[in-house]
Design brief:
With 414 residues, the chain is α/β, with parallel strands linked by helices. It has a domain at 73-109 and 211-390: Rossmann fold (3-Layer(aba) Sandwich), CATH 3.40.50.1100. The protein has helices at 41-51, 113-125, 138-149, 164-172, 184-198, 209-215, 217-225, 242-256, 276-282, 311-321, 330-344, 350-364, 386-390, 403-412, and strands at residues 4-9, 15-16, 35-39, 85-87, 97-102, 130-134, 153-159, 176-180, 201-202, 233-237, 265-271, 324-328, 373-378. The strands form three sheets. The chain has a six-stranded mixed β-sheet with strand order 4-5-13-10-11-12, sandwiched between helices. The chain is globular, with a radius of gyration of 21 Å. It binds pyridoxal-5'-phosphate (PLP) and zinc ion (ZN).
Length: 414
């Protein structure tokens, strides 16, 4: 790949050639040895600055100098990225500005399309036509949809308990679906074994170094939309830790190539019942990251991850970035979801609403000085899990088709 100088192991630091291997460092193994894509920042930076000159072009391809792709023709023929950034004035008495980056408008309705587009392009570049992944649901529907658009066969492993809409999406896109009667963490390990046995290309979280690259594009885009003056702090929800890593890396790279002055601090928000990364980070003081895991339990299914696969990057990158982690309860997620929909018209799935809930919690704990600007990433659509959304609202008023019934209900509610 012309703009990449190497793939560096995030734990031992060994650097591999850009085409030398597909997945993780053989010396360190899958979870510890995730690889990071290193660019030739001088030439890529120059090319990047040239491409993004002028106004926001709503085209993710403009960021290609900082993406692992040579031939843009290999991207799936769907519009990934270019999602809206909404100001949220309601809250600006306590902070200077709030921006909601609504990624539910991606082709398969989640942020995951940003990573999948690069995995699909990489597979096409290699002439591979079968891809697998394990996922809590969104990476899966993303792979199924973008794979379908690119004429690829997809083999998906999801926990049987994934919300019905996500599983239906997979089936409608024509994926081969294994609904595994186990947690996401177990489905992940099964997909890893199956991919090795059958030689399938693997897009499961963290295993492929390009995924984090795709996940940084939401941050590049947010900075671009704000004329390269991104917010001081950005909130994002965290499961395996790839999005939070991608955002931290992307902002660092923008700083390095002189596009922005200071990287925004990235605040990773986890569910209280699935907080492996937050708790590992709490004890981290630099150096090696100790691999930890737990049994996950949260209603926010997309971030119900106990054995996060991008733990090392998520801890190291956020530490370097000066960001932090926090947790929110399921009740805080539900009220955040409802509030965001009712006050800003953005309908998030629980995992996505966790980022907003984290911001609200930080606000209520007085963590802002009043002049700061804030970005919140909404990473998935509320339509993906309506049963969870229903928990925050009342049932509709059922009536016969008579005006008197309307009158009666109106009187009762006054
Ligand atoms: C809607 C949504 N938000 C956030 C996340 C967390 O992303 P990551 O696993 O990269 O931490 C996911 C992952 O599935 C997701 O689907
Ligand atoms: Zn290594």
């Amino acid at each position: 790949m012309k703009n990449i100088t190497g793939l560096r192991c995030v734990s031992c630091g060994k650097v591999y050639g850009p085409e030398e291997l597909d997945y993780t460092c053989p010396d360190c193994g899958p979870r510890k040895g995730t690889l990071e894509v290193v660019y030739d920042y001088e030439s890529s930076g120059k090319e990047f600055r040239e491409k993004v000159k002028g106004s926001f072009a709503e085209d993710i391809k403009n960021y290609s100098p900082l993406l692992p792709i040579d031939n843009l023709e290999n991207l799936p023929p769907l519009e990934v990225g270019g999602t809206p950034l909404y100001p949220f004035h309601e809250l600006t008495d306590k902070v200077n500005e709030v921006w909601i980056k609504d990624d539910s408008g991606n082709p398969t309705a989640s942020y995951k399309d940003r990573a999948t587009m690069l995995a699909v392009a990489a597979a096409r570049e290699k002439g591979i036509d079968t891809i697998t992944c394990a996922s809590t649901g969104n990476a899966a529907s993303s792979l199924a949809g973008l794979g379908a658009a690119s004429g690829m066969e997809t083999i998906i492993f999801v926990p049987k308990s994934a919300p019905e809409a996500k599983i239906t999406q997979l089936l409608v896109y024509g994926a081969n679906v294994f609904a595994v009667d186990a947690s996401y963490d177990e489905a992940y390990d099964l997909a890893l074994k199956a991919a090795e046995k059958y030689g399938w290309y693997n897009r499961s979280a963290a295993i492929h170094p390009y995924l984090v690259e795709g996940k940084k594009t939401g941050g590049l885009e947010m900075a671009d939309q704000l004329d390269w003056e991104p917010p001081d702090r950005v909130f994002v929800s965290v499961g395996d830790g790839s999005i939070v890593s991608g955002l931290s890396k992307g902002f660092k790279e923008l700083t390095r190539i002189g596009m922005i002055d200071d990287p925004p601090k990235v605040i990773g928000v986890q569910a209280e019942g699935a907080d492996t990364i937050a708790s590992t980070f709490a004890d981290y003081t630099g150096g090696d990251v100790e691999l930890q895991e737990q049994k996950a339990s949260t209603m926010a299914d997309s971030i119900a991850v106990g054995k996060p696969r991008d733990l090392v990057k998520a801890v190291k990158y956020v530490y370097e970035n000066g960001g932090e982690y926090m947790t929110v309860s399921d009740a805080e997620i539900t009220s955040g979801l409802t509030e965001l929909a009712q006050k800003r018209g953005v309908f998030a799935e629980p995992a996505a609403a966790a980022a907003y809930a984290g911001f609200k919690k930080a606000l209520s704990e007085g963590k802002f000085n009043g002049d700061e600007s804030v970005g919140v990433f909404i990473t998935g659509s509320g339509l993906k899990d309506v049963d969870a959304a229903k928990k925050g609202v009342n049932d509709p008023k059922e009536i016969p088709p008579e005006l008197s019934a309307v009158d009666r209900v109106l009187q009762q509610s006054h």
